[in-house]
UniProtKB/TrEMBL annotation:
It comes from Frondihabitans sucicola. Homotetramer. The lineage of its organism: Bacteria, Bacillati, Actinomycetota, Actinomycetes, Micrococcales. This is Flavin-dependent thymidylate synthase. The keyword Cell membrane does not apply. Signal peptide: none annotated. It holds the Pfam family Thy1. Pathway: Pyrimidine metabolism; dTTP biosynthesis. Its EC number is 2.1.1.148.
Amino acid sequence: MPEDASKPLPTDNKTPQFRSDVTVELVRSSAHDSDVLFAARVSTMGEQTLEGAQASAESEGATKGAGLINYLMRDRHGSPFEHNSMTFYVQAPIFVFREFMRHRMASYNEESGRYRELNPVFYVPGKERNLVQVGKPGAYDFVPGTAEQFELVDTATREASTQAFEAYQTMLEAGVAREVARIVLPLNIYSSMYVTVNARSLMNFLSLRTKREGTHFPSFPQREIEMCAEKMEDIWAELMPLTYSAFGKNGRVAP
């Protein structure tokens, strides 16, 4: 062991920081209820949809447009909901991103620990985060933990994260490549990524990663990815209110 390996590492911009939230920002979008309407009408209007059909869809009135969208949602005519796009910038711990990418329903680009030195920002559960699982897979819930359990999780997470980042910095300072040094970092370190998705795929994601009363297919998401899903849902609801309303009315099932 090098004689100075146990000395404290420099703290300039290297002190671990801890967060209990996630960040979701809309970067750009082309997503309107009218996108669903003109895409659906090509079935009966053909080339006429190129001549002002989108503009007329925007001006025809909410009632008529809502009726068609609800019909498409109810009878699961899904493809008209794909002709739109939303790009989100998400900051969350890495374990959340691994759950995101299991869906294979979006385009992802994540920051890389091979090409940049990662920032010492780590997730630690907030006091409102339930800690104890009750029930069994497929029919379980989470309930608040005791004050002692919360203190244990908080202390252990902070200590492990700090120790891991110190080991990461030690290897970097010794000339070890970033892609090697990063292997000691825990899953609660924050990363960031762009997520580009259409409304149909987003509905699939929301149906699985949010827990809501009245849904046809109950879901039991991990709270941290549900936090991301909730923020994405709020943004989408403002962009496509008729589509969002129909999604809720029809049991939150992706068409």
